[in-house]
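Figure S7 source data.
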Amino acid sequence: MDFISVLFKRDKERPEIEVQQKPDYVYGLITDKKGGFWLEGAEKPNLLLKTRGNYKHSTHRGLPTFLTLHYTAGRGKAIDTLIRAQANGYAFLMIDKPTGKLFQAHPLNRWGSHSGKSEYLYEGKKLKWLSNRSLGIEVGCAGRLSGVYDNGKMRYLDTPDRVEKYTGEVYPWYAFNPTTKLLLGNAKPIPKSRTRKIIFPEFNRQPGFYEKFTAAQEKTLEDFILWYASIKPDFDPLLHLLSHDIISPDRKSDVGGSLSLPLDEYRIKIANKIKEQRGF
Ligand SMILES: [Zn+2]
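Tokens for the predicted zinc ion complex:
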């Protein structure tokens, strides 16, 4: 791919204060021959995701205004998800489950599809179809899980009552036969220690049992957002950090209870770290 052959160009516009405070910066910015931005510290698999142009209404260097968090609702291997995304015409960053590493397969300053029908109230306007203003970050994770009835059939756990009363094992969707909805013979439950139980709706979180992001995934996600805030000085997580369940609440439950905090609290946590990083 292009970026391998080009001269790696360190980002010169990084505020001086960060260079002094964090010399061992997690990521650097690389610019390819076509002006595409690549993360120096990210894994770059040998495939390219489809992009559809420059971000709309960018306020800084062609970078997207918003970051949108997702989980894949899958087994969590980045390369498998990216191969499928390439076939389906999607583009997003991906955080691998086995390693916790960040994978990049499209330039940071070109938008690709990841959110579908979506809307968000911003600066007094209802924005629609957020993909062309936001960078998608998919975290490899089974997401919301299902229970099982005594007869082996899949049991939806999506209301406070159902979640509160359920005491059995919980499984990802791929543990069930897609037609009969019967639990597969070799299916393994997600261990209780790896799940988070949300009984009552809370901000973006809908009731359910969710597979948690791993500690390594949480760290990678946070590092990336903080790095992003360092290259885009007007990035404000309280306004610009989104999740799929915020912008498509009727049809999506990611990131839900897979992320360590409800999104409103997570935004505040990130905002405090950015303040520290920006020196105030
Ligand atoms: Zn999503």
